[in-house]
Amino acid sequence: MRRSFLISLYSVLCILFSVQAHAWSYESQSATTTHSAQIRTGADFTKKWNNGLFLNFSEELRFDVYNSMVGPSFNRSYTTLSLAYKPIEYLKIDAGYTLKVLGPDTTWSTTKKADVNEYLRHRVFLSLTGSYKFTYAKVYLRERVLMEARTDSVNLREKNRYDLQLRSRLGAEFYVPGKPVKPYLWGELVNTLNAPEYQQKNGQQFITMVRTQAGVKWRISQHSSFDFYYRFTYGYDRDIDISKNKGYIRLTNETLYQHAVGVTYSLDW
Description:
- The protein is mainly beta.
- It has one helix at about 1-25; strands spanning about 30-50, 55-65, 75-90, 90-100, 120-135, 135-150, 160-175, 180-190, 205-220, 225-240, 250-269.
- It is globular, with a radius of gyration of 23 Å.
């Protein structure tokens, strides 16, 4: 009796395992690699108060001058409003909202979109930044939790309506005595937090982007400055296509190598 029960239990577990294994199997796998070169331009405006509050509004435009998948085009724009608070010298807290408008051909897609909601993304974020100043440099670490929402129609087994990410940035700024310039350098890791189960890598969340940026901030007056920079981005994503009967799952590993040069004008008062 006991042996029969164990055999039956073993059979049920095997059936459940086979179903789960089938659910995670990909009937088709492929890979794409995109090489991109961008020009970026933007402006940001910051109002400062003596109590440690900062209100910032910024606008950024990105243009692909070269893209191996879709050719030259307008890539996207970012419109951001944020509020920051610095309770002590070494810590800053900020939160904000970004409206992202995608171009008709984005870096990650070659499909023409007709629904205006497919061009829009709504992003909110919360950041903690710790910093420490030395004689001629400042180092900082920023941890940012970001949620990006989409309002178009999506298959929730393939894509999230609300994507969560953790962005970890380590950087340094350098002071040049007697000069109005400030060179800087930072690196950032972007990690998924809630990728759908079929999109996960080996059943786990994964690093979807590695970014580095080097630049120089040039103050031209008491309240105005320019930021000239170069950014390199390595991106990795997993695009999932599931057929309606759930019997066919296609995985495309997408890799991005992106170079960008840009300039941002800043006004603070």
